[in-house]
Amino acid sequence: MYLHKIYFIWSLVRLVLLGEGQGEESWKSLNVSVSGRLHSIQPFALPCYSFYNGNKVEVNETACALIREDYVENSIHAERPNGYMNLQSEMCLGDPVDQCLLDNTEIPAPEPARGTSCNQGSVPSYYIEVEEISDITAALNFSQDHGVPLVIKNSGHDYMTRNSQKGSISLWVHKLKGLTYHDDFVPEGCGVDLRVGRAITAGTGVSTGDIYNFAHEHSSTFVGGYSASVAASGGWVQGGGHSVLSPVYGLGVDRVVEFKIVTPDGVARVANQCQHDDLFWALRGGGGGTFGVVLEATHRVEPLIPVAVASIKLPSNGTAETSLEWMELMARESLAWGKQGWGGHVAGIYLTYMNPTPDIANLTDGGAAAKSSMRAASEFALAHGGSSEIEVLPSFLDVWNKYVLPGALTTAGVTRVLGTRLIPRKLFSDEAGITRFMDFLKAVQKLGFDPRNLYCPVDTPFVADAATKLEVGNHTRPTTSVQPAWYDSLWVVSTSLVVAWNASYADRLQNMTAIIRATLLAEELTGADGGTYLNEANPFTPDWQQSWWGDNYAPLLEIKKKYDPKGLLKCWKCIGFEEKDILSDRFRCQGKLQLDVDQSIKGSL
Ligand SMILES: Cc1cc2nc3c(=O)[nH]c(=O)nc-3n(C[C@H](O)[C@H](O)[C@H](O)COP(=O)(O)OP(=O)(O)OC[C@H]3O[C@@H](n4cnc5c(N)ncnc54)[C@H](O)[C@@H]3O)c2cc1C
Ligand SMILES: *[C@@H]1O[C@H](CO)[C@@H](O)[C@H](O)[C@H]1NC(C)=O
Ligand SMILES: *[C@@H]1O[C@H](CO)[C@@H](O)[C@H](O)[C@H]1NC(C)=O
Ligand SMILES: *[C@@H]1O[C@H](CO)[C@@H](O)[C@H](O)[C@H]1NC(C)=O
Ligand SMILES: *[C@@H]1O[C@H](CO)[C@@H](O)[C@H](O)[C@H]1NC(C)=O
Ligand SMILES: *[C@@H]1O[C@H](CO)[C@@H](O)[C@H](O)[C@H]1NC(C)=O
Ligand SMILES: *[C@@H]1O[C@H](CO)[C@@H](O)[C@H](O)[C@H]1NC(C)=O
Ligand SMILES: *[C@@H]1O[C@H](CO)[C@@H](O)[C@H](O)[C@H]1NC(C)=O
Ligand SMILES: *[C@@H]1O[C@H](CO)[C@@H](O)[C@H](O)[C@H]1NC(C)=O
User: Which family does the entry's similarity section mention (predicted)?
Assistant: First the structure.
């Protein structure tokens, strides 16, 4: 109860800080400017609680039953303004009392203990359901006049805590739908010599699954991510956007040809190769939530193509040693597979690979070419009591529906934290490199990361050589702003952990310190040749500018200053985030933990 009281006093202080007491009128007028689409936000699990921010409230049995049943369902989170796939976006990481979670170890999630309070955590205070450009400009004006932070929330897939912020107004852009197919798209303001062929314009709120189906209806293939609910024209593409088809067709940033966006100076702009090309470059890798509110993006698409798929599994009760042997085999085969055009995921106890190149994805050879390419992996799995399924299907959608979708619907409702690193292809090219890679895996195992839980996207533009070779007409497209290591790497190696829903502060600090140690070991493995994917990184990474952007950070910062001179969009370790922000109130949920993690890393060096 003592903590509840402190929390209550803090809430009062915040009410004043937010200006609600003194500026009731200005909130009302903001609401009028956005045609009544300003609403307060309550945490996702509130209907199951009988206290809210320390005050007695009624449990809503109907709403609670649904939330308990669907706590780990991606779709329910993606469709709600208060739905975050990963719990780190709604809990206050630095303060275990300040959260509103359910026990995610059982389905349906048990009811919360009586008397515990649902607290706001890092869930924003308000959201605006964005429909019009003027909703965005009104919010920008309000933020500037009243100092209330803004965040942008779309599908809620972020691992990096950038889609929420304590005390902020959230621009909920998920309702910006709309899909248009173009036979031969010419970016606005470009001459017809810059036509890009078939393309799809997708509103920022459209899910990847909907784009896959829409593309298929137009006899086309969209090169998108794994999870059905990720917003392809949202954070996915702005941060890089990898696909199992990326080895052959490039990253999302290599394929997007135009954005419509409202920049923080309140202007709606088109960004492509012919206008605002600096902004266009920045939006292709600089990260979401930074350069403005994207309304829609246009992506090149491919024709319908047969795709080979290999789904090879070790038994789930195998040993960690077997997984290490498996990973060594994966590392040894990876360059050959890469050159053949395979992409997908290598994990501690399975691989799921896909390949759209005609030599392998041969619809008339009964899968022979694909099977032959994957022979070593199949034999290993079968010899260890596992399974191997390899076939060629007529389209990517067929493969995705059969092999990806069923397993990708229930990953929500956990605090999953990743520690990732792009692994340069040269590491896989000789014995010394493979030995170093295996030594790294054994070292992270000692830190508590079971090799069976490894998960490595193999989605780098390997055959495509997309940075330099994707040509449009007679022009080579300008390079993107993602970490340049994307174009010299083969794998993104990923260790991860799950922080318990009810972990104490000491447990959180231990967990984050462990994953930072794993991250630092991965940095040591690759040196400056590596880097990582800013959408799937460890949010506590110390040298984040270098890790996530390398030499692109400085020019990205210049573009940020040009389009957001007042710094109205600020998110955790986004372009323009400064070290002093770690201590600021709006980032206090991450800030305390960051300082303590830094301290415990330093203490142990
Ligand atoms: C289960 C799962 C599977 C994933 N699979 C893949 C994968 O296969 N490939 C891959 O590359 N990544 C993958 N990711 C990572 C994913 O790309 C990122 O989490 C991405 O940021 C999600 O973007 P979003 O807009 O859907 O999510 P949100 O969490 O809503 O937003 C993410 C970030 O983008 C910003 N943002 C969103 N919309 C806009 C907009 N319209 N304008 C400006 N900023 C915006 C937000 O402010 C936030 O900073 C996966 C993540 C999860 C949780
Ligand atoms: C904004 O106005 C709408 C419609 O009048 C109302 O339903 C809503 O509660 C208002 N929002 C706030 C935060 O008061
Ligand atoms: C309870 O939740 C349901 C479903 O969300 C909603 O329709 C209903 O209005 C809520 N009841 C109350 C009393 O708020
Ligand atoms: C935002 O402010 C600008 C400049 O003060 C003004 O021109 C514009 O009309 C405002 N927009 C909204 C939607 O309030
Ligand atoms: C794993 O499970 C299979 C089938 O359930 C069983 O045959 C095998 O002995 C088990 N292996 C180990 C190492 O427990
Ligand atoms: C596909 O397989 C058939 C039958 O084996 C073969 O004749 C053909 O050459 C193969 N095509 C390619 C592109 O390899
Ligand atoms: C590309 O350049 C060649 C030679 O300069 C020219 O003949 C051709 O018309 C150009 N193509 C386009 C699409 O501009
Ligand atoms: C956390 O929750 C689990 C159930 O999910 C329970 O077994 C455990 O005792 C709880 N831990 C603490 C510290 O309350
Ligand atoms: C994370 O913390 C939990 C306790 O909450 C612990 O059981 C687990 O081993 C930790 N994970 C790692 C990788 O350190």
Answer: Belongs to the oxygen-dependent FAD-linked oxidoreductase family.
Q: Read off the pTM.
A: 0.94
Q: Which ligand is nearest to the CA of 48?
A: 3
Q: Is residue 357 located within the same domain as residue 428?
A: yes
Distance CA 306, CA 243 (A): 16
Residue 504 Cα: closest atom of ligand 8: 13
Q: Which atom of ligand 9 is nearest to the CA of 498?
A: 1
Token pair listed for 60:
């809503």
534 and 387: one domain? yes
- How many whole angstroms separate alpha carbon 451 and alpha carbon 314? 13
- Determine whether the shortest distance from the Cβ of 184 to ligand 7 is under 6 A: no
Beta bridge partners of 390: 310
Residue pLDDT, tens place only, 22-81: 578 999 999 999 999 999 999 999 999 999 999 999 999 999 999 999 999 999 999 999
Question: The tokens of 7 are what?
Answer: 């929390």
Q: Would you say residue 577 lies in a domain?
A: no
Tally of domains within the chain: 3
Q: Which amino acid is at 5?
A: K
CA of 325 to the centre of ligand 5 (A): 18
Q: How far is the CA of 95 from the centre of ligand 8 (A)?
A: 17
CA-closest residue to ligand 1 atom 41: 294
Average pLDDT of every residue of the chain: 94
So what's the pLDDT on residue 354?
98
Last residue of one domain, picked from the residues 525, 543, 561: 543
Asked whether residue 355 is assigned to any structural domain, the reply reads yes
Using the mean position of ligand 5's atoms as its centre, give its distance from the Cα of residue 387 in Å.
13
In the beta sheet, which residues pair with residue 272? 258
β pairing state of 343-347 and 302-303? unpaired
Contact 138, 208 (CB under 8 A): no
Q: What is the DSSP letter of 224?
A: -
Phi first, then psi: give them for residue 140, nearest 5 degrees: -65, -45
Lowest mean pLDDT among 135-149, 174-188, 241-255, 452-466: 452-466
Q: Return the CATH number at 269.
A: 3.30.465.10
- Answer yes or no: is the C-beta of 518 below 6 A from any ligand 9 atom: no
> From ligand 8's centre to the CA of 73, what distance in Å?
22
Is the distance from CB of 313 to CB of 326 less than 8 angstroms? no
Same domain membership, residue 224 and residue 164: no
Question: How far is 6 from 101, CA to CA, in rounded Å?
Answer: 20
Residues 378 and 501 in one domain: yes
Amino acid at 174: H
List the domain range (segments joined by +) for residue 191. Answer: 179-303
**Per-residue model confidence (pLDDT) at position 121:** 98
One domain for residues 143 and 9: yes
Domain boundary among 249, 281, 303: 303
- Nearest CA owner, ligand 9 atom 11: 511
DSSP H or E stretch at residue 151: strand 150-153
Q: Whose CA is nearest to atom 9 of ligand 8?
A: 502
For residue 195, the ligand 7 atom closest to its alpha carbon is: 13
Do 401 and 345 have their domain in common? yes
Measured between alpha carbons, how far is 161 from 142 in angstroms, rounded to an integer? 23
Around ligand 5, the residues with Cβ closer than 6 Å are 315, 317
What pLDDT, on a 0 to 100 scale, did the predictor assign at position 475? 57
As a whole number, mean pLDDT of residues 246-256 equals 94
Residue 435 CA to residue 214 CA, distance in Å, equals: 45
Q: Could you tell me the distance, in angstroms and rounded to a whole number, from the CA of residue 503 to the centre of ligand 8?
A: 8
Query: For atom 2 of ligand 8, which residue has the closest CA?
Result: 502
The encoded tokens of residue 335 equal 């360059």
